[in-house]
Design brief:
single chain, six-stranded mixed β-sheet, 6 helices, globular
Length: about 270
Amino acid sequence: MQLGLLQLPVSADGAENLSRARAGVRALADAGAELVLLPEMWACPYQTPAFPAYAEEEGGPLWQALSSLARENRLWLAAGSVPEREGARIYNTAYVFAPDGTQAARHRKMHLFDIDVAGGQRFMESETLSAGNAVTTFETPWGVFGLCVCFDLRFPELSRLMTLRGARCILVPAAFNMTTGPLHWDLLFRQRAVDNQLFTVGCAPARDLHGPYVSYAHSIAVSPWGRVLFRAGTRPQKALVTLDFAELDAARAQLPLLRARRTDVYEVREK
């Protein structure tokens, strides 16, 4: 599969952000991409006050634009994540559109990014966002794919549940910061790939040192063996990456971790 990664700059101008996304997706489609992944919160600034201000309902103007973008370019569009409104609630939501423009998946970020690191980053998504509660997988021509958003990747149970549903690749729109990114970005994508013997792919916003939130960037694709297939820099970037699913089948055959699981003893019991 030819996978396109679109590491976008993010501004306060929603129309400008969408215009950049359109241009990037079209360029990647012309280059042969069959699926394109966008970053987390690429359509608005990554700030808690911005989420309600930019939020739209499913089926709203941004949703329609992304559906059309998938259909016009005849590709799968994993459209990053955007703020979604449902009644009084706001979610950090990732949509996936099939090449005919129909919605193939929707994942609402399950684990909200509430951290306060001494001497580092403080960010509280729960001040404005609500948490989703669904494990998200969807069918593609290349098999089952999993979908989660950023902080979700830190929880190994979620990746394992997607794997047990048949996932062969996990797509992760994400925006790690300059505190967690240098330490954990590569580590987490490689470890989830190795744990579950599948491809992991993360797409982040480009780094803007003058913006309200500084993204670590470094969009990434990792093989089932834990090999980094591609890692972006910090600037806006378009990349085409080949995912060879024969490599996944070989990894699972040669190192049968999933078959060797001891589900008969994986239980916490009272002493």
